[in-house]
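To the wet lab folks,

You asked to see what we're planning to order before we commit. Fair enough. Below is the target structure as tokens, and below that is the sequence we designed to fit it. If anything looks off to you, flag it before the synthesis order goes out.
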């Protein structure tokens, strides 16, 4: 049950990031720092979703969900939607 609590904590963080991403997208034009923040948020979202999916997959296959790890931005930025 503890692992499911970790999942919920990650999902809550994802919701905050998605809300920020939407606010940034809604702006007519972004200053350079806004564009950088948007890119950072998108990478952080990928980094949050990745271990969450790893944990779910490990749980479903009888593995240890606590072995899921956050991968570096260079890895998750290459994921396609």
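Sequence we intend to order:
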């Amino acid at each position: 049950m503890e692992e499911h609590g970790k999942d919920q904590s990650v999902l809550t963080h994802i919701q905050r990031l998605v809300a920020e991403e939407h606010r940034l997208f809604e702006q007519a034009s972004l200053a350079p720092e806004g564009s950088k923040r948007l890119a950072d948020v998108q990478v952080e979202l990928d980094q949050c979703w990745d271990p969450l999916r790893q944990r779910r997959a490990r749980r479903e296959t009888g593995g240890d969900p606590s072995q899921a790890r956050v991968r570096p931005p260079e890895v998750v930025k290459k994921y396609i939607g």
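Structural context that might help your review: The mean pLDDT is 89. DSSP finds three helices and no strands in the chain.

Thanks,
Computational group
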